[in-house]
Amino acid sequence: MRPTPRPLPDAQTQERRGLRGRRQPLMVMRTAEQNRLAGTSGRLQTDIAAPITWRTERLAMRDDALETVRRGSPLWRANDDLLQSAPGIGPVCARPVRLALPE
Predict the structure, then answer these.
(1) Which of 5, 56, 62, 97 is most buried per CB count within 10 Å?
(2) How confident is the model at residue 40 (pLDDT cuts 50, 70, 90)?
(3) Can you give the residue ranges of every domain in the chain?
């Protein structure tokens, strides 16, 4: 068999995939630290809260970068508009759906 070769994704798509791929581990690590924080008291709370703050800031930076990439592509803007045209789907709900979809 000789399947037809598929072209490599463009630079913008590769950047979006990289940002999306880094976002998920940050979410998992932040959630783990938040769970640890709930079970502690005293001095450990300060020690555990610092990485939570850092990861929250990094997530905000990733989200801003993803939004910038999305706005830079007419196709992704159109897909986002289509997604948000569904009743009950706004920007908050659309973000995780957009990140989960490959296109």
Answers:
(1) 62
(2) confident
(3) 12-100
